[in-house]
Design goal:
elongated, alpha+beta
Length: about 120
């Protein structure tokens, strides 16, 4: 989503989806992020403003192909499952880590101060 507005997509039989980069070279499309395509409140896709699907039939074709591929494997049982990502409790912040770090650093400085170093004039 973040740089797709700078690139063109092409679908070729046998090789699959190709992406044209700003230097006009074609490479295989390896990954694209469509989080929020199916459920608007789950991702950034509905909120991005760099790409308008009405102007980009190549991107619209990719998304249609993706939606059809997902629909083959979708079932009502999967539709009722809510994602667990972001639902976990935040880990407890360990208190005193700054103090322990400062004490460790002070011990290192004391050790270095005890080393016999030559005086440079």
């Amino acid at each position: 989503l973040w740089n797709l507005h700078e690139r063109l997509l092409h679908h070729e039989e046998g090789t699959g989806w190709q992406v044209t980069d700003p230097k006009n070279t074609r490479q295989p499309l390896v990954f694209f992020n469509a989080k929020g395509l199916f459920k608007a409140d789950e991702g950034f896709f509905p909120h991005q403003t760099r790409l308008r699907l009405s102007y980009r039939p190549d991107v619209r074709a990719l998304l249609t192909t993706y939606q059809q591929a997902v629909a083959i494997h979708a079932s009502q049982a999967l539709a009722n499952i809510s994602p667990a990502y972001g639902q976990q409790r935040e880990p407890v912040v360990l208190r005193g880590w700054r103090r322990a770090t400062v004490q460790s650093m002070q011990a290192i400085v004391r050790f270095i101060d005890q080393l016999p170093l030559p005086n440079l004039r």
